[in-house]
Amino acid sequence: MKFILLFCFSLYSLAINAQDFQSVSFSTADGGLVHANYYHSGAKAVVLAHGAIFNKESWPGLTKKLLENNISVLAIDFRGYGKSIAGNRPADKYEDILAAVRFLHSHSEIAQVSVLGASMGGSAAATASIYSKVGEIEKLILLSPASFTKPETLKGDILYIASKNERISNRVKAQFKKTPEPKQLELIEGKAHAQHILKTQEKTVLTELIIDFLKGNNDL
Fold it and tell me: With 60 as the cut, is the pLDDT of residue 1 above it?
């Protein structure tokens, strides 16, 4: 009985440790302040940029899987969410992502930085890619991204993901057509939008697509 209790406690401790994070904050180029949760697990890292009705706490299942695959995570709160504060250009959410990317690059244990943006966060992530320096964002995942301009100027390896039957799927496909190579488009069964897919039976498919792309297990 004692052995069983110790074994269960060990498993519980491992589960808790897998979710340990640092509460961090960093400034944006326009004078804002971003608060985020930083989970270190490996040399590859991804910034998670949430949708309009979500926040930095809204990725628990995906974060756990990323950490299990030795991918570090920086989940941000956009300006106006949680404790994050807008700078002198309140609408420029892409500055929050660029600040997050540069925060990760400032850490010697991180060798590669990618970004995953969902819906509103997808639009901001795309704009961040456009304004980023070459090589700052290695891989870009746009999950049912909101509208953004100049998709032909995106940088890095790019993966679009959307549900086949969601309202904006045609717009996503149109954005994808204008995006430069290397690029990939994955359409998932159903009609759920962006992070809502993680609440459906397609969450495993979505999670595997994200992890395979970030680990470089798929060919673009």
Answer: no
